[in-house]
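Reopening: structure tokens for the iron/sulfur cluster complex, inputs below.
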Amino acid sequence: MNKDLSLYVHIPFCVRKCLYCDFLSFSANEEVMKAYFKALSKELKESAKDYSDSMVKTVFFGGGTPSFPNANYICSILSDIKDNYNLAADAEISLELNPGTASFDKLKKYKEAGFNRLSIGVQSFDDDELKRIGRIHDCATAQRTYEDARKAGFTNINLDVMSALPGQSLESYLNTLKKAVSLDPEHISAYSLIVEEGTPFFDMDLDLPGEEEDRAMYHKTAEKLQDFGYHRYEISNYAKDGFECEHNKVYWKRGNYLGVGLGAASMVDDVRWTNTGKIDDYIAYFSGDSSFAGIRENVEKLTLEDRMEEFMFLGLRLITGVDLAEFEALFGKKIEDVYAEVIGKYVGMGLLRRFVEEKTCREHLCLTTQGLDVSNTVMADFIIHIENSIE
Ligand code: SF4
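Re-run output (same inputs, fresh job):
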């Protein structure tokens, strides 16, 4: 096998839409789900021939709520992957699930089918906050789901938590973090709410925490989780040693990934594309409707500049930042030949720093703690700069 590949499988179904959600997700009846899984199975099988020389190192079932449909559909898709791709014996195989949709029986089925990592969308351990953001579960259900997952044999679990929620105080957020840590998961993802256009929240008058409180939540996240033995390895992600999410690291390191299912994004050998987001078209195409030429949209071969930009703004999300020798090996230029000005500016401001990584003895460039606070501004400058500097 000469290439590594990651697989992302999109399950777009949810019980109902949360008020802040801008993901490709919706509720659907059994008939639609059945047709969708049939199409998904076909897509997986048809795509497999293009990846016969690849070894699948990670698989991630995301959504939507993959734990909402009947577990047999999900397990049968995983078995299609096993039958049609070269799946590494130690592959990380993750499933996203939401409390209120995952019974103990389902969890046992997932484990037996081969899933070895769960990501649970807890978001908050405050019932009022959960209600205000439109989640279907309460704290007791979240805790039960977590305990059931342990009983079912899962030893690698992520909990998602959110800050900057309507009506959330620093105190209630810290309670959520405390509760999450007390459950002792291997990984915690902590995101701030972003009110996106097109979501119900966008048109609502929300009682959001002020900027100062928002910042305090952000800083306390890093402080508290590190105190409890979770190292921060990406802007929003924390893990115990040995439990970083290998699948997400592939995105940040620009590895090859194939996305299957509705609206799924792929990048293989520097070509990007997205599957159609229209479920009727997706199902029709795989049912043999010849009026569709294909389901892939926005196919784009990335230019050298695109790749350099991505290498920088994705790599800087990682706490260890970007490897300078890797930049040179990939692009045939030293990083300073392209980014001297922007690197000089931010190193001078104390937002970026160079360091030699102990394990590899290789020089890296990464955001400082202060730089992580304004990461979006720094990363955006890497894009603007390159647009101005490369002809
Ligand atoms: S569960 Fe997740 S994907 Fe589904 S509506 Fe809520 S936020 Fe969106």
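The chain has a mean pLDDT of 96. The pocket of iron/sulfur cluster is lined by residues 14, 17-18, 21, 23, 25, 63-65, 98, 121 (CB under 6 Å). Marking as resolved unless the reporter disagrees.
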